Amino acid sequence: NKRIRYVYEALGDMSFELGYTTEAAHYWAKGSSHKTSSQKDPLDRNIQMTDSLFQIKQYELAIPIFEKALAYREQEYGANHYLTAECLAYIARAKEKRLDYRSSAQSYHRALQIFIPGYVGSSLLSAPDTIPPYIFDKYLLESLTGKSNSLYAIYKRDSLSNDHLISAYSHMNLAIENLKNIRHSPRSEDSQYYWSQVTRPLFDLGLSLCYDLYELTKDLTYHEKAFELMEESRSHLLRQALLRNQAFEVAGVPYELILEEQKIRTNIATYAAKIQMEEKRCEEANNTYLYTWKQELVRLRQAHSIFMLRLEEQYPEYYFLKFDYSPVSM
To answer: What is the pTM of this model?
Structure first.
């Protein structure tokens, strides 16, 4: 692996010296796949172990690993860094799985304070006013949904206050809002599958909250919201069916163009991940690699925008089927 990495890095260096930055970025990205981790972050070192612990439901064994990673990231990146919030989301998920809902709600709450600019969150029950449309991240969505579910579980179990139910409802609405932002963002096919998996439980949670709030208040607003969620859920299932590559058959788009669009989106996701991983190496990060990859990421995003404009102009039926995310009326 080390020899292969050196070959790719040499090819990248030669391409860069000749001014072929796209080729250099490609070779360096290939080489980085054979690079060993700095092994400093406890979560990076043990990610496979924690995944296995989750699969066998040994959440209490995963939490100490996450907590060590949290301490490392707070010291290395700062208490308010995105990677710190990501680790808090891991801890919260493990606590939620362990049915420690009050503690999971607190960890999700702290993660949201980092993810959302300007959100103070002076109390556990306070929800952000809104989600900026440019923020679409799976850990943010997981934190909003997880906190809503945790607060709802506290309400169902302890019945201490209706405030927990109302706050859970507010966070659920924000999660739906964030999901809509995500739908409008560029996504790879794998990413589309991920979001399709997490969407259904969110709508189920929303319907349960609407039902309980209506039973409590007899406010017809919650009936209307429940109907809206059912409509949104059904339209989402229909949209997922259309998102599959069957859509190009409906609109008569050449299969080569479908593959080209998928390739661009996959490359965008690849370079974004490479940049994130290299930045986590801190003092060991290669600034030349980072600069070149970021330039390539900008180029790819511009290429994707141009491609989508061309697709919309030449094949409006396909564009509507696959990329227009307005609700589908039932």
So the answer is: 0.64
